[in-house]
Amino acid sequence: MSNGTAVTGTNALDRYFEITARGSTVGREVRGGVVTFLTMAYIIVLNPLILGFVPDSTGAFLGGGTGQGENLPAIAAGTALVAGLLTILMGSVAKFPLALAAGLGLNAFVAFSIATRSTWEAAMGLVVLEGIVILVLVLTGFRSAVFHAVPTQLKVAISVGIGLFIALIGFADAGFVRPGAGTVTQLGATGQLSGWPVLVFCLGLLLLIALWARAVKGAILLAIVVTTVGAFVLEAVLDLGARSDDNPGGWALTVPSFDGVVDVPDFGTLFQVDLFGAFSAGAVGVIGAILLVFSLMLADFFDTMGTMTAIGAEAGLNDEEGAPPHTERILVVDSVAAIAGGLGGVSSNTSYIESASGVGEGARTGLASIVTGVLFLLSTFLAPIVSAIPSEAAVPALVLVGFLMMQQVTGVDWSDLEIAIPAFLTIVLMPFTYSISVGIGAGFVSYVLIKLVLGKSRQVHPLLWVVAGLFVVYFAITPITDLLT
């Protein structure tokens, strides 16, 4: 339903979140919020695994630990706390069904490209600075101006590319596809499907498809619950354990077994920040720190732009220019999330495309985000329960949502090469490079180039020239860094 609908709600909650106006119900919002949480809960387990095993330049580990993995519970608690607070903020301020958490890819960049060259406190300081820079760009209108300067058909391509990307995430997290010898990916670990967890994923996906085809209400949530129960039974009988080189048939991210129910959270990573520590001569240095902040900023900047466009399109909330409602508020909250992630010691937080799973369940408003945020906060105490849901049971939702977003591909005029080639590069490079930003950057640069060689440079918005130039620098950041540092 479009933003301009005249339908109004019957109570304060309904009117505030525009539930009826957007064609939704409180029940759908709650279900959507739960589904989004279930498809994102893996970050509570995965973020600690990425951040907790990397020593900084002094040999220290995140949160002041002295050994690898020593502070995983604290990192998990901090991850859930920041994600919960910022997702609630997104729901209550921007009123948009978008959840936030520590960004995958961004956390690896912070761990391996920043912390190893400075200290963890200095690395988080750069994350805070990156968030401040983005917030300034939002408040000055630059970030929104860039968004509106992008041609509508490129925005459609961004949504389609993200659909393929999250479908790939679903297949990869389930072990259905894996890195292969001499190939980018292959079916299973050996070119064939193997292992009981992959079977759980396949059965969960087939169940979801059947429920969706039958238009069963709550299809995604029901499929996740049923598949999780089956995973618990399977693990109890066969004791499959976690996937490893010695155990390729194990569970990918989370073993479905309870180790207690409630635990007291440890927030030891909070406020472990040295704002300008990376700028010192003994650390990264001024030029190196600036380049690292630039890299973080550009990835975060355009990941969010693509994500909110895709979510809004899938929910039917975008306007004629492809912009979701309350765009400015969404961008402000996302900028604050980057700052909060640094202050929380858990890396930059950003908008999650997995929110599309909740939209697929019917979520259309910020109430769904508040439900997701509350569940994240509860998970700081209920970490054993959260960590018991295997990815194989949750990620079939991502594959289905990938299909739903792929349907937007008809919005691109494939007979017009001036837009078709940039759209194609945008769509294919997101899953091929495992990066939303790379796909967007390739689309922008190729769009500007084609207009230039055809003598149509005046058709390119001035801001797109700036952004395309920034992406050229972004793609060449490694040789530039090596040259200047």
From TrEMBL:
Entry keyword annotation includes Transmembrane: yes
Key words of the record: Membrane, Transmembrane, Transmembrane helix, Transport
GO cellular component: endomembrane system; plasma membrane
Bilayer disposition of the protein: Multi-pass membrane protein
Entry's localization field: Endomembrane system
Transmembrane segments: 32-54, 74-91, 98-116, 122-142, 154-176, 196-213, 220-238, 275-299, 374-399, 419-450, 462-481
Gene Ontology terms, MF aspect: purine nucleobase transmembrane transporter activity
Family stated for the protein in its record: Belongs to the nucleobase:cation symporter-2 (NCS2) (TC 2.A.40) family. Azg-like subfamily.
PANTHER family xrefs: XANTHINE/URACIL PERMEASE C887.17-RELATED, XANTHINE_URACIL PERMEASE C887.17-RELATED
Designated name of the protein: Unannotated protein
Organism: freshwater metagenome
